[in-house]
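Side project, low priority. Logging it here so it doesn't get lost.
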Amino acid sequence: MAIEIERKFLVKDDGWRGLATGQARIQQAYLALGGKATIRVRIKNESAATLTIKSRSAKLRRLELEYPIPVADAQALIGLRRGAVVEKVRHIVPYAGATWEVDVFAGENAGLIIAEVELPHEDYRLELPPFIGSEVTGRAEYYNSALVGRPYASWAAHGAAAT
């Protein structure tokens, strides 16, 4: 069984850019939201696609099952989505033995930059890079599944911008 143990942080500056070793352009959409699980379709660099089922809990540890699918199937499934399509560029940033993924969001979520790191276990002692800001693990509004219904661009308009 695949378990994801992940922490999420806001990014406070561009210090990560010089450390990045790769990137991928990502489009993703949600086919099911709410209940006990989300079902997501993702296309990377317009050349690879996955279908993912994740337990709904926005906590440190959750079930994640991911399956490769043909890009054409993913494009068709995106047409069945709930909410907006999330667009972002994911940058791979190695730091102190961990692999960080820095997501620079575009479209309706432009301006939001989140760093995520997957951990081997919940008690893993993580060294935070200097570009890391506030931790947002467990704060549902920062999860992609929430951004499809309440995009980051709307936060500032309502006086609820991230801190």
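Brief comment: The chain has one domain: 3-157.
Revisit when time allows.
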